[in-house]
Each structure stands twice: as C-alpha cells, then as structure tokens.
Amino acid sequence: MELLDVVDDNNNLIGLSEDRKIVHEKNLWHRHVSCWIMNSKGRILLQKRSSNKTRNPNKWAKTGGHVATGESVQNALLREIREELGVKIDKKDIELLGIFKSEDINNRYFGYDFFIKFDYPINKYTLQKEEVSKVKYVTIEKMKKLKKNNNKSYTFVKWNDEDFYKTIELLEQKRYKLLRNLKQQKNWKDLYYKNIKKFKSMDDYIQNNLNKKKTYLKQIEKYAKNKKVIECGCGTAKISTYFQNNGYDVSAVDIDNEIIDLAKYIVKNSTYNDSPKFYNMSIMNMNFKNKEFDVAFSNGVLEHFKNDEIIKILKEECRIAKFVIFGVPSKYFDEKEYMYGDERYLTRAEWKKLIKKANASIIDIKLFHSQSLTKRIKNKKIFKQKEFNLFIIKEDKSDGK
C-alpha cells in the first residue's frame, strides 16, 4: 500500500490520506514531483517508462513520482531519483522551477517541477526495472523537434503549446547560464590555436575556411556594391582578411582583444599582405555611423547569444550597414562539431521571429556546408545536408518609420 496525502483544489492538506489506487479511482487531488536533469553539456535526461506502467507505458518522460503521506516534496523527489535511477542527489542541488495544476479528468494533482544540474555517465545509472527500462540524454532542440513532429513516444508532446514552450524557455535559460559559466574554464584563443595546429601554414588555415564558405562569400560580394564591409564577431578574421586582400575596405570587430592579436598574427604570418582594420568593441554597441557599411556579416556568432541579445545585435548591425548577412547552424548541424559548447540551434521560424523583433526584413535565405567538398568526400558525407542557414536581411522602415 502506498499512502498519499489528499489536498483540496487550492493545494491545502485536508488531513486525509488514501491509498494511491483509491486516490486515482476517486480522482482526488494530490501532489506529484518531477524534475529536469541537465548535464554539463546542456542535455536533458529522459527515462523510458516500463511496459507494465498503467499510465504512459513505454513512453519517454522526465523523472518523477508521487509525494507520500507526511513527505516533503523535496524528499519525495530525492527518493524517486534514488529509487528509479540509483543515484543520490543533495537537497541543496535541486531548484524548484514552478508548481502547476493538472486537471486531467482521471488524474488531478499539483505538480512540483524541479531542475537539477547533474553529471553522470548514461551507462552508470542503476534502473528500477519495474519503473524504468531505459535512459538517454537529449538536447533541448531535439525535444522541440519531437514536439513539432508530434512524436507520441514522448509524454511532453501531448502538453499544450503554452506549457511546453514555457518549460523549454526555462530550460534554455538554465542551459545558457550553465554553459556561460563553463566558459570561465575555456577561452577562444586556446580553441583557435588547437584548430590552427591542424594546418601546415596560415595560408592553408585561411584557405580551408574559404573553401567551405563559397555561398557565403558570394552573397557578401553580391550586396557589397561599394566594397565596404564589416565583420561582427570576427574571431581570427579569415573572411575579413580574404576580402581586404581582394580590394575591399574591411573593418573587423571582436570583444576579445587576445583574439584580435591572434588574428593580426595570422595575417602577419601568411602571404596575405593587407590587414583589415581591427576594433576591440562589443557588437551590441559599435561606434560607427548609420549605414556606414554596405554589409555587416558574421558566421557562427549569433547562436552563442540569448534571444534578447540577438535582437539587440541585429538592430545594431542593421543600423550601421545597408545589409546584414549572417550564418547560423541549421537543423542538420552535427552537435559533435560545436566548437564551444554553448551554441544554440534555433529553427528558421524562430530566427524569423527574432529578425522581425529586430525591426528587419528578410531578403533571402540560403543553406551552405560547414565542411569543404574534399572533407565531405573523405568523411563519406558527400550527400550530407547543408548545416548552416544563411540569412540576408535589412532594416525594415515600413512600420511607420
């Protein structure tokens, strides 16, 4: 017998305990706990419910269960995790995300939704076979795709859109904070150096990058009628260096002064004689005149920022340039190729909403590969879908401006 505390429709204890079976038969209000477990890569742990479960058998769900009589919601959650996954979590590591009211005609309860940051190898969990048959880590982006495709093997797919996307937003905020904190343990310069060492020379390093961005380069050339461009978040400035040495007037902006020094070093030690003009500043607030440039461009930059920051950046880029061209990962991008780890995949629909909020309009959208044809042949991925979306936008002055 599993006794549960019965509550009223305002979540107040009424001094009554009933067996779990009776609670469900009579559809009495009770309490339930669940949690989203996120690892240091920002992925969410899901568990597959056992085939003998009465509710949602063989469905993927988050970890959770009922609150027993006299038990606190925190202790109930820790018990469920310990029983179902075989791991112990410290109470100080659990964070309440919110309390929701489920008015399912056959299952009325108050749900306490928690968040836990916890690293544990997937093959080390000790599963309670009566409750859980499998576990796996998935990305938040994968969860959104499952919802969009109405994959009924996952319990959250049947949630209403408002509740689902509110939860997704909270999880994205947690992931963003988690991965940003991890940045303190990394730096871009070390990552770039590691990549540069793979090439025989600086020329090879630059050329390799150019080979896989031909579509991207053509669009910049198309819209830069006066050949005055700016790279926003230039990194090692490979694209900027190429254009500067092909008759363009190029400015390159980055907030990291060490990276700018590295970019200058690359130019100096290559056969590219002319260096772009470098500026150490935030791309959210650039000290340039309105429409000073034909094109403001970036690639692999915006996916590192939160939505409100992306909007601010796009507005600023549209202010200083006639056209803005940016590349971001598409749904075909391989997560294993992420350079930093805090990259966010957004759907085209999500990017379109951000562009609209930045008071910009879309001129064109294209796709391009993140790997050269030679590398795709070598890796047997010649028919791989293109992994980057390329947006060409401009300031929209039609809205009463």
Description:
By secondary structure, the chain is an alpha/beta fold. It has two domains: 3-184, Nucleoside Triphosphate Pyrophosphohydrolase (Alpha-Beta Complex), CATH 3.90.79.10; 188-395, Vaccinia Virus protein VP39 (Rossmann fold, 3-Layer(aba) Sandwich). Helices cover 32% and strands 27% of the residues. It contains twelve helices and 16 strands. It has helices spanning 20-25, 73-85, 140-148, 161-182, 188-196, 202-211, 214-223, 238-244, 257-268, 307-320, 348-357, 373-378, and strands spanning 3-7, 13-19, 30-38, 44-49, 60-61, 63-66, 94-104, 107-117, 132-138, 228-232, 249-254, 277-280, 293-299, 321-329, 360-368, 388-395. Helix 9 (257-268) links the parallel strand 11 and strand 12. Helix 6 packs across helix 8. The chain is elongated, with a radius of gyration of 26 Å.
Low-confidence segments, ≥5 residues, pLDDT <50? 375-384
Helix content: 25-40%
- CATH topology title of the largest domain: Rossmann fold
**Subunit organisation of the chains:** single chain
Counting DSSP E segments of at least 2 residues, the number of strands comes to 16
The outline comes out as: elongated
Q: Kindly, what is the distance between the CA atoms of the first and last residues, rounded to a whole number of angstroms?
A: 68 Å
CATH C-level category of the largest domain: Alpha Beta
**Class by SSE composition:** alpha/beta
Report strand %.
Answer: 25-35%
Largest sheet: 7 strands, mixed
In spatial order, strands of the major sheet run 12-11-10-13-14-16-15
Average predicted local confidence, pLDDT: 88
How large is the radius of gyration? 26 Å
The helix-strand sequence is EEHEEEEHEEEHHHHHEHEHEEHEHEHE
Number of helices: 12
Count of discrete structural domains: 2
CATH hierarchy: architecture of the largest domain = 3-Layer(aba) Sandwich
Could you state the CATH homologous superfamily of the largest domain?
A: Vaccinia Virus protein VP39
